[in-house]
Amino acid sequence: MADKRPIRTDIPHSARIWNYWLGGGDYYEADRIAGEAAVAQYPEIKAIAMQSRRFLIRSVRYLAAEAGIRQFLDIGTGLPTMQNTHEVAQSAASDSKIVYVDNDPLVLAHARALLVNTTDEGVTTYLEADFHRPEVILADSRHVLNFSKPIAIMFIGVLGHARSYEEVRRVVDTTMDGVPSGSYLVLCDGATDDKAYVRMCENYAKTGGDPYIPRSSTEITGIFDGLELVEPGVVPIDHWRTDGAARGVRGVSAWGGVGRKP
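Structure tokens predicted for SAM-dependent methyltransferase (262 residues):
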């Protein structure tokens, strides 16, 4: 599929800044400047980036190794980095199918090159789509995924780009309504419990990049309404299925959880 939009190198982009924070090399000068400014304002942002990736790894490993899930729809993939969804899932279950979804042309270019199967039995592919259009994502992913069997829906640090909480709920509810009983929601996002983090997000919006809006822990928990939460529920992401040695003293300013559709 041809990319519909050019890559803008003069405006910072969250996926590329995330890559910069994680020590990658897939970013431009505008991203480095915005990333360094964010770290100067809120040094803990690098910990949030790293803990978000570790939360993804733990949640995918739990779903593939313990919950028996073999299909993953990773929406808002971001740039490939350490232990991507397909690598974690297929290491636990070689026949896992993963569909990555993103609408950024740089992400898609890297997806073509790097997001490839790690096993002969599995499937790894990508869709060019915007998370604001869940109906399109569901329709297109049917070409790969079997919607008569459970699917893990993943939103890792992306729904802050929705303009309102109502839009967040619409996107998630529409997506979960489209998958069968036994499917799972994996979600985490920045939270408002640290005012310095909120100010950093407000300052980022002034750079011209797509604004990111943190939600309260109550709002993030509310996204899981109607689902059966996996222990320990919706918590700071460095407290989700970790031991004490892996946890921050007070938890990073990002909350997440995993919920099963009854």
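The mean pLDDT is 91.
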